[in-house]
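One such given next:

>
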Amino acid sequence: MMSRTLPPRSLLLALALSAVASTLPARIISYAPVTDQHAMPAVQHRTNRFYVLVEAAYPISSYGGAYGAKLVLYDSKGEREPRVLLGGPEAQIYAAAAREEPDGSVRIIVRTDARLGSDNPQRANRYLYTPDSGATWRVVPIAGELASAAFLADVGGPVARERGSAIRIGSRDFPFVLVTSDYATGTSRAHAVRADGGAKVLADLAWTYNPPPVLAGSNREGTRFLLSGSPLTSLGPLANSIRILDLDGGLEDLQPLPQARSGLEGWITPNGSVYLEDSGRVLLLYRAGTVVEVARALPGEVGPPSGPGIPPPISQSFFAVPTADFAGSWIVQRGTGSPTILSRHEPGSALAEQWRDISAPEVEALHAGASGSRLLIQVHVPRPQADQRIFRDPALAVWDVGQPAPKRYDELFLVEGPFKGFVHLDVDAVGGGDAFVFDSAATFFGGGGVSPSPGGGGGGDVTQEWGVVRASLKQRLVVPAVGRLAGGFGSFWRTDLIVRNPSVERVSVVARFVPGSTAGSAASQPVERRLELGPSEIWLYPDVLGSIFGLANGSGALILVPDGDAAITATSRTYTDSPRGTYGMGIGAVDFFAAAGARFPLSFSGALQGTDFRTNLVAVDTSGRGSDVAVRAPETGDGVRPDFPFRAPSGGQAQVNGLAQLLAVPPDRSGALVVQPLSGEVVASVVAVDNRTNDPTWFPPDLPSPYVRTIPVIGHVDGANGSKFRSDLFLFNSSDQPQPITLTAKRWDLPEAEAIVNLTLSPRESLTVRDVLPSLFGRTGIARLRYVSNSYESSGVRVTSRLYTLDPSGGTFGLLMPPLNSFQSAGPGESLEILGPQGGRNFRTNLSLVELTAFADGSSIPVRIEIFDDFGVLLDRFETSVPVAGGVQLLDLFRTRGLGEGPPAALIRVSPLGGLVGAFATTLDNGTNDPTYHPAALASR
């Protein structure tokens, strides 16, 4: 099937590139969790190349503290592997701070009961220090607990996890300053930790409960600090106030003397002035013996509650952060019914408004670039209704000083906690594609939510929606497998590529074919071509290796990089012809920053399908330095090999075929595989092939399941053209403990109660349930399956499914049917977009809509459907309805709606007018009944 003829575009492209104002749409940012553990960042500068996390198998206290914890050092550039520095199964870590030196070494202080070798048999809490990135450790001679400080919401600034911390970053000679409290004697102390691990007392303080003595800020160099408390002198305790403390122990009063209060945070300017923000209410400047009010919250806006045990809100209506040189301040003011205002202040000058945005973005953090000319603005995008998703939506924009307010915020979906914030960020480089690291600060499991599953770059490729994640504002996509080559049983495989430009501007894309390391190819080196897409266009590139790259044969991966800050969506279908028609699999594009690293193992619960199937693994290196990978079958025994190692070449693809044989897994055994990156970063996928029909099914990595997940359809039903659809369910417990799981099924078309089944899987157990709807639930038809696997110490049982039709040969033609996610469900005011359905006389496309409410009430939800052709032209718009907690399928959509055979490639937009609706489409070959799955993705706004 061919798309339209490629027209000359050079003149139009030149005109488009000369446009002054960009109308590129926002995008949903894909990201890769850097660890599968609960994590808490250390107090550290965000521009550090190397950053430190405290990781634990158990949830970490919101105010610090983790059991079974490890201290792990990461490289933000991804050029070195993560390294465990300290800790273990019995260790507790309460706090950590890190200072990176110019030579790249990292000095770290930790409050912990961890042992160094065989010492500390009683596991006493103490302070440990390393001057050399964990190569050596020593005990710091400081007694007492860290002062009881309450972390505050991260509103930006140069240091991560700093606000409310009892440890602050110091100078090269004294890398850390901290406050301790001895509750038995009722005293507190401020200490400076020397570069050699020694310590000295800077000040003795009277211990008070509310507020406790704390450090409330510093200067840029880490040589002077804001000390809140009542210093003890030979003449008695001084007033409980805020003072400047230096590294010699000198104290300087502010005039007039500010009373110590919980929630005060500030900084010291180069000329000795002090900015103090009082609990999100007012910003004061202490300068030359005077105090002036710089700015305050808008009328009617109240600052956040403060004090131990009171978490701050998700976003604040008033806050301030220092300019890059600490000489001034950036200030945000916003309120209900008011514009959002960004201002700048310098001592001796009036408050200078930078912009006023009547759309009232909920700005929640500001980060100043070292250049002084750029800010990263983080906003909270509210979802239009309260529903079972617990996702919040931090959205990001880089703003150049002097420009109007940003019109585009790229969206970052995460399960977030109150202390979320950037761990690593270089504001001046992030716009050019440098990676950033963000902590969602989610410290709990349970509750509602739905999960990611495979889709074309833009969130649907995310494998874990919480924790510390790595991402980029610049998009790079990879289609992990493309081919033009002969296969088994007389097959010849080809790949059709579909690329969409969602912008009203023309977009240019570099397409780079990377030959696989295990297959013969006409190209031994990467080959590049440039693709040009007009406004809102969808291009179908049939047989892309032949038509675009001119290759007679080959297989590998395809990398797609749009110019500038443009974003695209892409998907593909790899297939072969047969006397009855075509069959194959859909493969979505995956963002480079959805790759897995060395502390994030991947599981594939449906990888091994048992008798009459073979399983292959595809891994693409996205680190640019090659990746070492090990694959194993988690249920060992019966001579099963413990693991099989292989290497994905630098920037390339590796394919490992016949995994069951390589791992010595008995051919009749079905179950999971675990893929563990040992070095580098990889996008990994599994292909299970039915040997009787040669039909492949593409499996992306499994999803952790501590939240309610929904597989939109499981079936036992006969369909068109003699099809007989069935569903197999695959479950895998990835932990070393037994794990419970609750599964429920409810048929689409009946207002019935859910059928409920509770199971417990043994450690590392895989479970395959064939024809799951009748065999497990005693029902037939089409149903929705929901499941949850809550566990305090684990992210739950992994689940996926395969939907297939039985073939007269005894084989199957099928497709992956994964859980839906927040990127694949929408409520009122939102839209889902489905890219990939192809028209033609040999195909039919079905659209499926599923309402995700827990219980049926007999009512229905209206949904608006729009169909666009490959020019972005609206072909059809109509409304249909979906029963609450049920589903509908619109069969042979194009022909039913009077669109004939349909466009070469289409975009389907689904906009619910109520409820919470998930969607997907399938394109079926009329001859083989082989379906191709097209996931939906939430449209950015």
